[in-house]
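Lab meeting notes turned into a lecture example. A postdoc, R.K., suggested we walk through two folding results consecutively so the class can see how the record format repeats. The first protein's sequence and structure tokens come next.
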Amino acid sequence: EGNFKNGEILDLDPALLAHLETNVISHDDSIDLYANDGPSKDLLYDILVPAKKAQAVIVLLPGTWDRLEYVLSSNKELCRLAFQNQIAVIVPSVNQRLTMEKNVLDFLNAVFEHAITKYQLPKNKFILGGFSMGGLFSTRYTEFAYEDPSKVTVVPVAAYSVDGPTDLENMYRMEERAYNRKPGPGEPQYAMNEFKSYMGGAPDEYRKNYELYSTFSKARADGGNAQFLKNVPYRVYNDVDVTWWLKNRDADLYDMNALDQSAMINFLQHAGNKDAEFINAFGKGYRIEGNRHPHSWSIVDAKDCINWVLKWIK
């Protein structure tokens, strides 16, 4: 049972489906910003439009390979509560790249520009959230916005990351360790290929590129790009279940995003950001298929998140 869109189940309340619209931004996804969508070359976004004038906007950025339908279904309760509170929800079709290079930034800017114009959205009430790679993007876009507002369409009032990577130099070493333990196709090889394509190679040789694309650089006293979040309400969610990772993925704390995420929040708090939070949603991680996985959208408590959003858009 369920509503199918593009061959994937879309589990939203029926009343909400009538308010869900798809907008194509381009028919030329020649660089595969959006993969796992069959032969389609469309770049697009889904938007859940409130029944009355939108008071604010939440942007949900997908993880690697995740389809828009999967993102919406994984945030079913968040979408319901957003709709109740006249908050629009936008999901852009970007699920590739580990770097917010120009193509990613340009596409997100184009999505926001299109949505603001078509739906009369409040440009100054955007909140960005993202899962995994999407968490890296929600954070990095917000940093760009506060470093140089001329580079972006919107300056988010707040942002959150659902277990997204932060320090890409550390991530490279993490993926390298994983690949050496178990060579072959898979996430570690994908990540190292991405880093080679968009950074040039390993961090020892291309450190400046890693610092440019990271949301936080632990080795730098100024925190790298994290310094631009000093005055921005910012949350990181993680389900820090090291026992699960040891048992199911042969991974330890050095292989988890939590180390760098907690260091980043610590840096922001020391820099005077009283609204920087690390939320340990221990034991809350479950995929919509029902299986336990700490790296999941479900670690965000929808009601608490919407209350947090409402606090910052007032």
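The second example is placed directly after the first for contrast:
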Amino acid sequence: TGLPRFCAATTFDNYLAAGAWTRVQFNAADANEQGAFAPASGRFTAAEAGPHAFTANLAYRRNGASAPTAFEAQFYRNGAPAGRGRAALTGSLVDGVSCLGLGTVEVFARFTGADGYVAAADSLFSGRQLP
């Protein structure tokens, strides 16, 4: 099709300190048509203007006895939050089961109340240019 698209994963559990927005380091490209995704930085760069669709799934992993009160994620574009909204889970997070899905090119996440990890085994980031 000639349109850029990618699917990326992280090869390690990303540590998130409590209360701090932290870039999730997606460092392995499972697919990377047109080379628009850079695993070294975890960023997608659009080659041309036009609509793009992005998804991210982040899985929670407990850090010791920590018990975060919320797990939030949002996309960043050009180093700043990318507009409308963010995804959030609140309440009792289940280690290895609780997941967040984002539907707008970096992914940032944070826990509130305690620290934790974004689990490598069940987290992904993907995107594509729409025709």
